[in-house]
Specification:
By secondary structure, this protein is mostly beta strands. It has two helices and 28 strands.
Length: 384
Amino acid sequence: MLDRIHKAGVFIIMALPVVISCNTSSKSEEEMSEGPTYYLARVDSIRINRENTVRLLDYHPIEDRFLAYDQITEEFLVLDGKGKVLEAVYRIGEGPNEYNSSLLAASFNQEAGGYFLQSSSEFLWYNSDWEVENRIRFASEVVIRFYSGPQLRVPYFRLQDASDPYFFTNFFSGVNNSAGGMNGGDGPDYLIERYNPRKGGLEWVFANDPELLPEVAVNPDSKRANPVQVFALDKAANRLYLTYDRSNTIGVYDMDQDFGLKEMLNFDHRRFSSVQNARNKALFNFEDDFYGVLYFEGLSEAATEARRAKDPNYFPYRDSGLYHFILIQDGVQQEEEMGFPAGCEPHSEILSLPGKRLLFRDKYGGDDEPTYSTYSVYELKSEI
C-alpha cells in the first residue's frame, strides 16, 4: 500500500536545553488486579444513508456534528449526531475556495469554527461557509499521498502564545514516514516536521533521542527496520502520547516545552509476535491518566492458510478476534484485555468520542451492494 521513493533527500510515501521529568511506570500483579475492571458496552448507533463509501474523519462534541468524506463523489459531508447529511461540499478545482492537491487529512477547527484541510504541500483554513480564510503552501521533505482522499484528522494544536495553529507535516499516526533509527540506528536528528505560524514556515522539532523515546522491538525477519509512530494528541493540555507499532511503552510529551518527556508508561501484550506481523494499531487518551492501546496480535502463515481453506475470503487484518485493547489507568494496566466488538470492522476508521466512548464501523452482512453505512458507539464501563 505504501511505496517509498527517496530522491535528492526527499522522501515520497505514496499510500493508497530542556529539563526532563521522567517517571517510568512499573506494576505488580497485585496492582493490576486492584481497581475497576472496564468493558465495552454498545450505547448508540448512527446510520448514513449514502450508497458510496464514506469515511468519518472527525467529531465536534459541542455541535454534535461529524465530518466525513465521500470517496466516490469526493465531497465533504457534514452529518448530525445520528448520521443525517446536513451539507455536501465539493471543493476540488482552481477557484479561490478550492484545492487541487491530494488531501491527507481534514478536521473541524474545534476552537474557532470552520474546517482544516491538509495535504503534503498545502494547509487550508475554511470558515463555516467553506470559504478559504487562509491558504498555507509549504515544501515538506516528506511527501505522502492517499489515493482515496483524506483518511486522517489534521494533527494540529495551538501553543499558549499563538492563536494560529501549529500542524505536523510528516507525522501522522499509523503512517510510515520512513523516519527510522529510533533505537540508535541511522536516522534523522529530529522526528517531526511542523509548520510554525510565528515563523511562517517549517521547522524540525522533537529530538530523535533513544533515551527519551518508547522502546521498539526489532524483528530480525523484517526488511522494514523503521517503526511506525502511533499516537494521540491532547490539544487542551498540549500533550503528545506516543508509542510505536512494535513497542510496549508510551511516552507522554509536553508540546509547550519542546516535547519534553513527562512520563514513560509500560504495558504488556497478552499475545504479540512481530514475526506474525503483530503491531499496535491505535492509541487513545480517554481522560487524564487513562489510556487505551489497540493492537493486532498477528497470525502465522499456517494458521492463515488453515482458515482460508474454510473461508477463501478470510484475511487476518479483518478478523476482529485478533484485535485487543490494553487499558492503562493511573499508570497501572488493567489485568484483563478487552476484545474488539465482533460485529465491527477493526481495519476501518475508529473515532474517539467524549465520555470514554469509541465509534466503530459495523460489518456489512448483506449479499448485495450496500446503500448505507452504520456505525456503533461503545462506552467504557466499569464493574468493581
